[in-house]
Amino acid sequence: MRVLGVDPGLTRCGLGVVDGGKGRSVRPVAVGVVRTPADQDLARRLLGIADEVERWLDRYRPEAVAVERVFAQHNVRTAMGTAQAGGVVALSAARRGLPVVFHTPSEVKAAVTGSGRADKAQVTTMVMRLLGLEVKPHPADAADALALAICHLWREPMRVRLAEAEARAAELVRAHKARLAAAAKAAGTTTKQDETGARR
């Protein structure tokens, strides 16, 4: 599977494409950053991000898109900008029928480093090691985008299997309740018939 990982942001939006192979093998395909001027109109900045994401989708043709979920930030303005950029990416992917999954920063850190509290340096180091990179992706947004793609490749199969298991369990519960209801109804009908016969 090929995944486009996106670390959304207005000033810097990290993009990283990773191919997943057998087991947990991963291979880097492309990495980069979309930059927009801070003094530019918000709509134009979002358009610039959308245009570049569209180019990446056309060029690399990923099968899924993984976006960092805005979790908690003290700076509300920064959080809003990050969420808006992430929304633009999700919209571009959805228009192509691509699945979009949002991963929290702690999920990404845990998947790549084994610790949900790892810092950016640790994430970058592990991304380089996992992908066999000799040069550090710069800035950190680029490394984070690659980490998102890796996280998705490793977590999504497990999430899908879990969802399928939950769906099967729910279906078994529905079938069991239906059988109980049918049995109760049949028992009630038999009781009424017995009562009617007794009165006669």
TrEMBL record:
<comment type="similarity">
    <text>Belongs to the RuvC family.</text>
</comment>
<dbReference type="GO" id="GO:0048476">
    <property type="term" value="C:Holliday junction resolvase complex"/>
</dbReference>
<dbReference type="GO" id="GO:0005737">
    <property type="term" value="C:cytoplasm"/>
</dbReference>
<dbReference type="InterPro" id="IPR012337">
    <property type="entry name" value="RNaseH-like_sf"/>
</dbReference>
<feature type="active site">
    <location>
        <position position="141"/>
    </location>
</feature>
<dbReference type="GO" id="GO:0006281">
    <property type="term" value="P:DNA repair"/>
</dbReference>
<keyword id="KW-0378">Hydrolase</keyword>
<feature type="binding site">
    <location>
        <position position="7"/>
    </location>
    <ligand>
        <name>Mg(2+) 1</name>
    </ligand>
</feature>
<dbReference type="InterPro" id="IPR036397">
    <property type="entry name" value="RNaseH_sf"/>
</dbReference>
<keyword id="KW-0479">Metal-binding</keyword>
<feature type="active site">
    <location>
        <position position="7"/>
    </location>
</feature>
<dbReference type="GO" id="GO:0008821">
    <property type="term" value="F:crossover junction DNA endonuclease activity"/>
</dbReference>
<feature type="binding site">
    <location>
        <position position="68"/>
    </location>
    <ligand>
        <name>Mg(2+) 2</name>
    </ligand>
</feature>
<keyword id="KW-0540">Nuclease</keyword>
<keyword id="KW-0227">DNA damage</keyword>
<dbReference type="InterPro" id="IPR002176">
    <property type="entry name" value="X-over_junc_endoDNase_RuvC"/>
</dbReference>
<dbReference type="InterPro" id="IPR020563">
    <property type="entry name" value="X-over_junc_endoDNase_Mg_BS"/>
</dbReference>
<dbReference type="GO" id="GO:0003677">
    <property type="term" value="F:DNA binding"/>
</dbReference>
<dbReference type="GO" id="GO:0006310">
    <property type="term" value="P:DNA recombination"/>
</dbReference>
<keyword id="KW-0234">DNA repair</keyword>
<keyword id="KW-0255">Endonuclease</keyword>
<dbReference type="GO" id="GO:0000287">
    <property type="term" value="F:magnesium ion binding"/>
</dbReference>
<dbReference type="Pfam" id="PF02075">
    <property type="entry name" value="RuvC"/>
</dbReference>
<comment type="subunit">
    <text>Homodimer which binds Holliday junction (HJ) DNA. The HJ becomes 2-fold symmetrical on binding to RuvC with unstacked arms; it has a different conformation from HJ DNA in complex with RuvA. In the full resolvosome a probable DNA-RuvA(4)-RuvB(12)-RuvC(2) complex forms which resolves the HJ.</text>
</comment>
<keyword id="KW-0460">Magnesium</keyword>
<keyword id="KW-0963">Cytoplasm</keyword>
<feature type="binding site">
    <location>
        <position position="141"/>
    </location>
    <ligand>
        <name>Mg(2+) 1</name>
    </ligand>
</feature>
<keyword id="KW-0233">DNA recombination</keyword>
<feature type="active site">
    <location>
        <position position="68"/>
    </location>
</feature>
<keyword id="KW-0238">DNA-binding</keyword>
<comment type="function">
    <text>The RuvA-RuvB-RuvC complex processes Holliday junction (HJ) DNA during genetic recombination and DNA repair. Endonuclease that resolves HJ intermediates. Cleaves cruciform DNA by making single-stranded nicks across the HJ at symmetrical positions within the homologous arms, yielding a 5'-phosphate and a 3'-hydroxyl group; requires a central core of homology in the junction. The consensus cleavage sequence is 5'-(A/T)TT(C/G)-3'. Cleavage occurs on the 3'-side of the TT dinucleotide at the point of strand exchange.</text>
</comment>
<protein>
    <recommendedName>
        <fullName>Crossover junction endodeoxyribonuclease RuvC</fullName>
        <ecNumber>3.1.21.10</ecNumber>
    </recommendedName>
</protein>
